[in-house]
Amino acid sequence: MEICRLIRSAVLASCLFFAAPSNVLSADKQTDASDQDGSQTEGALPPSDFGLRWYGVFTPCAGRCAISVYNGSYVKDGMYQIFTEGHPPHTWDYDDDYIVAGAASKRILSLWDMFHIEPEIGIARRYGQQHVTEVWAAAYLRFDGFPWNKYLYTSIAVSTGVNYADKITEREEARGGEAGGDRLLHFLAPEITFALPDYQNIQLMFRFHHRSGAYGFISDTDGGAHYGSVGLRVWF
């Protein structure tokens, strides 16, 4: 049953990544100017009447590809508790368990140059109290249309996808409730990024790296592991 679920989820993730014909940051604004004078951005379709802009997955990056690296500490608090009660990161209950991760992403769709879809693949290693390797495939929805961006470029994003761990730890079994743990879980990792306006391609990233059962959609387990993390993203 687990193998079938893994195959099904992998197919769904592949569709997210490759199905759509596939801007980033300051590069988006620069390409808008070139579109207006009659030229066309390399590997891109012109924007539609609704402000929708598509890019090809296998086209040149042209500023729309990114590499991210981050490191974080295990958070004992539940995700629902943190975000519904508005607990800031400095009040979270951390533990001596950590994660280091790397991810690659590409922007494939933009709407009104402020909403963006970015498929991502990543790999992480937990260390400290847990020794687990994770891999994931996800799609991020990002918003960067903040009015203060000329002073401090800011974006927020949230993901949906699948995360597979090479083992189930006692900690995840305990957090999973009656169903216990599961290797294949949902990947929901909200984040916020900041950058200097003149260097929008280099961003400071804060991500809540989280995997869980998604209320039975991916797994019957209640919860998994999650980490409050900080890292760096570079667009190219």
TrEMBL record:
Residues 1-26 form the signal peptide. This is Lipid A 3-O-deacylase (PagL). Keywords: Signal. It comes from Pseudovibrio exalbescens. It comes from the Bacteria. The keyword Signal applies.
